[in-house]
Each structure stands twice: as C-alpha cells, then as structure tokens.
Specification:
Strand content: 35-45%
Distance between the termini: 97 Å
Number of helices: 1
Radius of gyration: 24 Å
Order of helices and strands: EEEEEEEEEH
Structural class: mainly beta
Strand order of the largest sheet: 2-9-8-5
Largest sheet: 4 strands, mixed
Number of strands: 9
C-alpha cells in the first residue's frame, strides 16, 4: 500500500516420499542344477514405495552367484540368497540348493 512494493514467493510442489515397509521374494526355497539359472523377484512393499532399490548377495559365490535377482549355479551345495532394501534395510532370503545335472534324463530322451 505504502510505496507500491511487492513480494513474490516461489513454491515447488513435490511428491511425498513413501517409505519402504518390507520386502518379499518370489521364492523362499529352490533347487537348480549346476550351470542353470533361477530368476528371483523382489517385491518391495508397499508397492508404491518411492525407493525400490535393492542389493542382492549370496552366502557363497563358489556355489551360486546372484546379479539383479538372477541366480547362477556354480557347484553342488546350498546357499542363502539375500535381498536387502536400500530404504529401511529390510531383508528377505531364499535357500537355494544346487544339484549336479541328472545324466539319466538324457537316457530317457533317446
């Protein structure tokens, strides 16, 4: 009013952050043969969580490796594949048993 001064304010609207409340895996146990792969899917909860990033690990790289949920069997044994959420550190596991290839299967095909 006095002096015709004005003020402005810039407002930025951002989406609210939806925190992770848990994680599950598509399987909790599995058996695969040496040199075969298994695809595991991590389901981060809630489904609309803002940060769905996860970290995959294996209890023994000599038995099976894991990258982006793809487990590759290396040698006979049992490993625990773990997925951990970046947001909140929630964990889910799958026990994977690696077996030798069944050579009798080829005999049945002949």
């Amino acid at each position: 009013e006095d002096g015709s001064y004005t003020a402005t304010c810039s407002v930025t609207v951002v989406s609210p952050v939806v925190a992770v409340t848990g994680v599950t895996l598509s399987k909790t146990t599995a058996t695969i043969e040496i040199d075969k792969t298994l695809n595991l899917q991590a389901i981060v909860l809630p489904l609309n969580a803002t940060n769905k990033s996860v970290i995959w690990t294996t209890s023994d790289n000599k038995i099976a490796t894991v990258k982006d949920g793809v487990v590759t069997a290396r040698k006979k044994g049992t490993v625990i594949i773990t997925v951990k959420t970046v947001d909140g550190g929630y964990i889910a596991t799958c026990i994977v048993t690696v077996t030798k290839e069944d050579k009798d299967k080829d005999k049945d095909k002949k």
